[in-house]
Design goal:
This protein is of the alpha+beta class. It is built from eleven helices and five strands; from the N terminus they run H-E-H-E-E-E-H-H-E-H-H-H-H-H-H-H. It starts with a helix and ends with a helix.
Amino acid sequence: MQPEDLVRDHTIYACVMGSRAFGLATPDSDIDRRGVFVAPTPLFWRFEKPPTHVEGPAEEQFAWELERFCELALRGNPNILECLHSPLVEYADDTGRELLSLRGAFLSRRAHDTFTRYAEGQRRKLDADVRVHGAPRWKHAMHLLRLLTSARDLLRTGELTVDVGQEREPLLAVRRGEVPWPEVESRMARLAAEAEAALSRTPLPPEPDHARVADFVFRVRRASAVA
């Protein structure tokens, strides 16, 4: 079985991510498709295991095998958590809908560390651009502000919201380079401080619900084995 066949025949969940899911799309924005597939259990009985992820078969398409997807989500990976909360769901079968019903089981205070580390990595890239070119990549600056806002609000409310809503126009102004870099830096620092303050009183649990997710993966694997 080719990797593309796994995506075509065994996808349980598919969504659109990127600027379109964030509410930041412009006429030239790509359509970034993400998904989750379940490799048939008998494939794991071979020496050569099925892939943990597959690029394609369409352009801008990427999918994870269920177990890998859940592992990353339990670690608080920002991209994976946002994929689970995309407002643009294109497909979900019964298993996919159960995965979506488990979204809260993946959320925990770990998100503060994972979102912060990811944000710090992106900030280093922006700072390097400023040193070399005299200005950041404004699109990347916009998305970093979006990520920091999302992390702060997740810690405050216990819920992850992907669409930026009323922040669309202020963020697009950053993308167009209309906001001075020092002001963008100030916003980033403020959002990071607000996220740190929210951590002490967040409604999020200390750890994700590993047992609930593990039970789900086990049942999916068992059902596939006897299908």
